[in-house]
Amino acid sequence: MSKLTDINYVKGVLSRHGFTFSKALGQNFLINPSVCPKMAEMSGADESTGVIEIGPGAGVLTSELAQRAAKVVAVELDKRLLPVLSETLGDYDNVKVVNDDAMKLDFHELIREEFGDRDVIICANLPYYITSPIIMRLLEEKLPIRSLTVMVQKEAAERICARPGTRASGAISAAVHYYSDPKLLFKVSAGSFLPAPKVDSAVIRLDILHEPPVQVTDEAKFFQVVRAAFLQRRKTLSNSLSAGLSLPKSEINEKLTQAGIQLTARAEEMTMQQFADIAALL
Ligand code: SAM
Fold first, then answer.
1. pLDDT tens digit string along 93-108?
2. Which pTM was predicted?
3. Which helix (H) or strand (E) holds 240?
4. Deepest of 26, 59, 225, 277, by most Cβ within 10 A of its Cβ?
């Protein structure tokens, strides 16, 4: 068993390095010893896999990944954690820590240089302030990866995994389902973190699809329609699309009727196919 499952060891290293948690960087470190092994196991990391981790923190999840995968590249923005990680991950020769911003880093280049033809997955306990933008960035860039296993706030997990056409769905559900097959793996209580956040979290896995589930001729337009549809989710689709796309309501209504969609429908009732039909008509 890794010494990193011992919270007193981790606290000791952090305090020896004078580390203080930054709220702005979303630093809530996992201290529940059962979560990281489970998350690493369910990510599918094995001896043939390369793993990219975003935000290793003190390296608790990193060490679990390193025990299972061929190689782990961990991208950490906070320079203050570099000496901590050198100490906690010193025993692993298959881990590389990169000091960079995951919102700016060129992941295509990183994968080419660090993993070559290897199967690659991403596994991370994401800083909550960039949950949606980082997930969307990683999906939209069409990286040669097999899956993304990430810990996010429970509500975000439920929204991301909700099937388009169901009540809990939102713009991110449609976007995520366009690129992947998302699953909620397990929930994690707020008390599993140091410091404890206000809300519970959940681990989700997004298995990347080789083909999108619907045929879309213009992806930019498809996503523009999805975003506009959910801008005012309490209003009818007709109103939100008219406002969000700056088009006259009469034109929107004509296209919705053409697509066989009721004018009283709301965005959350739309399936992926219906969003694709609307985008194709507009
Ligand atoms: N993986 C650790 C764990 O589970 O205990 C820490 C997770 S903590 C929720 C998020 C981590 O992401 C922190 O280490 C934080 O410094 C790092 N981080 C925040 N913003 C980042 C960014 N833009 N790029 C890379 N890492 C970032």
1. 999 999 999 999 999 9
2. 0.95
3. helix 237-245
4. 59
